[in-house]
Each structure stands twice: as structure tokens, then as C-alpha cells.
Amino acid sequence: MDYLKSALPSQIMSERGSNLVVINPGSANVRIGLASQDTPFNIPHCIARHTEQIPNFTVIDKMLNSTVTTQQHIDREKAYDVIAPLLKIPFLDEEGPSNSFPRKMGRVDGHNPHIIRKDLPFTWTNVYEEATNSSVSLETSSKDETDEFLDPKEGTDSKEPNASERKFKEFICGEEALRISPTEPYCFCRPIRRGHLNISQHYSMQQVLDDLHTIWDWILIEKLHIPRNERNMYSAVLVMPETFDNREIKEILSLVLRELCFGSAVVHQEGLAAVFGNGLSTACVVNIGAQVTSLICIEDGGALPSTGKTLPFGGEDISRAFLWTQRQRQTWPPIHSDVFGKPIDLLVLNQLKETYCEVKEGEFDAVAVVHSYENKVPAGPHKTRLSALNVPPMGLFCPMLLTPDAYPPPPRTWFHDYEDMLEDTWHIDFSRRADMSDTFYPNVNGGLPMWESYPVFSTKPKKEEKVGLAEAITNCILSTGRIDIQRKLFCSIQLTGGVALTSGLIAAVEERVLHAIPPNEAIDTVEILGVLDLGRDAWISREDWIHNGVHVGSNRKYKDSYYLQAQAMCYMNS
To answer: Judging by DSSP bridges, how do beta strands 235-240 and 20-25 pair with one another?
Structure first.
């Protein structure tokens, strides 16, 4: 443990990277991988368990969802008409001047600015155990999680066992859980919802933690090939989103050390990890996730907790807005799409959104193949022309278009137990296991000392902002109260998360943030840093730094002296 506290990150990576497991839990996906790997596994954070109590597929979350009200429909239409002039497109009740053909299915031979890709349909998951080894309940697929598109001629499975030999898999994790037919007797759960543990009257704390344990244990065994009896030789790095509260972090930390049997663990804040990972020391980090968007300012390598904000919408809300827009424009095929009750439909919408949506001016259409999924019937293709593809991403700036209230966060009554998470409950006495020595339980009687100087995560539920992305970024930075740091932060806004990859979004955020700054503020420059592009250019090789220094024509953005010093120290010690 002293080694972990004293060693430099580069030293730890080179000497123990193969024994460090990095875990970044999210609402829709969990990213897990060895520190020595270039890319972690990105797996849907969900599980479906077989049940004999219900005959058909059931989604636990559906019981918390509310239907879209008449007022929300009106607000959505108003939001569309607010966005329309910004994008220079017709209002919702207007016909485009160039539409001289029926709009419902469109012209399939028309202009398509995209190369159609990923048009192969998804296939239904095989929910039965392999006949040759029915006792292995963990086996869900011989395919990798990323191998999601199969030949449609293959159907759901090449061979099915006899009815008398069939045995349902006890549980199914990841994307295969999303592709279970609605006729199968499984209960589908997401243990994290809107950035919090998904605890409700329908989903107890123990069930949530059990599902987290099962999903992560399955990934560790099936993907990372780390059996339980060897995990005491591994350390876990928990990269936690800012949305989590202290009690939630405590439960997850206990899960990692006790149930998953890791030898040691450390908790890092997601915003700080994003900044350090891209070679910065000061930035406003905007993480646009699947279900929430979190913001926090980092100054000189330290988080400013008072600037933290959470917006209750993300990429999945954009996907739902995509479906609503197509239905309003009468371009969606005549199929029943249920994003709340049928997870495979949300999978389809996410795919279409990621493939076709951009932020750009003018009418923006594309020809695509939309597949429908009903019961166990093979996917049915519907060729159509999708329209107004630049509208859904603009919901980030006009949240009424997204109606996140239809998919509310889990109720927070869990925190009304008057338990002080910074005092006695942090002094956890982990039960000792016979296969582990005392060195794996430092300060057992004295609690977890790392939390004594770690005031970043709040003990109370964080308030969610009801504003658009541009206003949230502006308020987040201006709340620092100092003009010097404000100017620096406005020129160092870092977008992370899958939605940040949307074409045209960076330019739109820059423009909208600049217009959101009050005129009395002495700020005239805004710069957005795309996380992938910056991450690629931020690294300086040892040889390049020693022999060449900084090239003026290198197009690299060195924000401040702290950044240069950090890079120099990192590579001088590597």
C-alpha cells in the first residue's frame, strides 16, 4: 500500500498495469479494462434474469416511467419551433419547399449525404444453455460483446435442443440482455439510472447491488479472464461519475473489496481523470453521458466542488427525441417502437442516431433501413427517408424537446435515513478472508483514511439543473467568481462522452456558450476541446520533447505552464 501511495503513475503503469483493473460505471454502459490495455470493454450496464413468475419479458424500469403529458407534447412542439429558425429549417407544421413527393416514406433514390452502414439487423439472443454444458450459467455467448451484427440468414440460433433438454440461462448480461425477445420469461434491470443507484419500491438496494456484482463478476471472468481466486492479486481503480453520492460510493467500494474480492481499491473522480488523461490541469469538464450530463470545473489539478452541476438528460434522450421527430414528420415506418418496454428498440434508435444525426444548418435528410422487431420473428426491414436529422441533438440546448421527465431518476427517499456518511459508516470493518493476509486490509480498525481529505463527493443528493447545456456551462464557469480563472476555463471546455462525437456539436457548443455569456462579463473567447482529438495530440514523446521542444507549427494547444510541466515530469520519470 505504501508503494501505491509513493509511486508515480507512470511507474505504477509500467510495473503493475497488468494487475490494475479500471472500472468506470455509467447508467447505460460500464467501461472495464486492465490499465495496460489501450481500450476498455464498453458493455451495456444491464442484466436480465430468468423468472418463472412472469410469462413474458418485463422491464423493471417501466414501472417508474411516466407517460408524456399533453403539456409536454405542447412544450416539445414549441421547442422544435425554437430550434427550427436556428437551423434554418421549416417549422413543425410547415412543409419544406422542395418536397414535391409524399413524405411518409420519401424517395429512396434521393440524395443521401451518408454512407449507409450497420444496416444488418440485430438477432434475438439465445436464452437457452448450451446442451453440451448446461451447468455453466455464466456462458452467454461465444461472440465478443462488440460482435453485434450477425448474418440475418443465421436467425437466432443454428441448432436448438429438444424441448425436454432446454434449460433457460439463469441470467444474461450486456448487449445480449438488450436483444432478448419480448416473449421470453426474463426480468430486465439496469442497476444504475440517471447517474444513481436505481433503488426504488420496485428494485431494492440489495437487488441493485446483487445485479452490479453479477454483471461485473461476469465481465471479469468472461472478458478479462480474471477468476475469483486470483483477484486478491489485483487492484481496482474506480473512476466514479460526479453524480454519485457518498453512500453510493461506499456501497460500490464495499462491493469491489468484499464481494468481488479485489486486494485493494482507489476511487478517482471522473472529471479529474478526464482532465489528467488529456494532459490538462485546468478545464471545465462536460461529460455528456447516456442519461445524464455532468459538469465540473478543475483548477490546477483540483476539482471545485461548488461548480458541479447535473443535467437530467443525455444520449438516450436524444434517441427518444429522434423517434418523436420522425413520427411528427411522418417519416417513421408503420411499426410499434417501445423504447421503455423493449430494449432492442432503444438499441436500434441509438444506432440510427449515431449514424445519421449531425448539427448543421439547412434541411437534412437521409435514406436508411429501419428494422422492426416483433416477438421472435426475424427483423423486418423498412427503407425510408429520415428527415430533420439535425433537430434531436439540439435538444441539448433546448431540453423541452427531450422530455426527460418521462424517464425520471430513481426516487431519493433512500437518503432519508439520517445516516452521516462521513463519520461512523465510513469506518468499515471488512470481513477477513482466509486467503488474504493483513496487508490487504490496511487500517481496518481505523476506517478508510483516504476519505478524510476527499471532500469532492457530496453526502446529499445533488440538485439537477433545468437549463440547457450552454447555460449550464456558462453558469458553471461564472460560479468560480474570479475573472482570471473564468477566462481560462472558457478557453478550456472539454467535452467527453459518446454524444460529444456528434458531428458539428463542438462548433454549436462554442457558439451557444458565447451567446449565453452575459454582456456585462469581460469574456469574449470560447474554445471547446474535443476529447478524442486532444487526447491524440496531447502526448509528447520523450525524444521529441528533449530534442525538439515545442514546434510552433505542430497545431498543439498548450494551455498553460502547468500543462508543460506535467508533461515534462511525466516523461522524464518514465
So the answer is: parallel
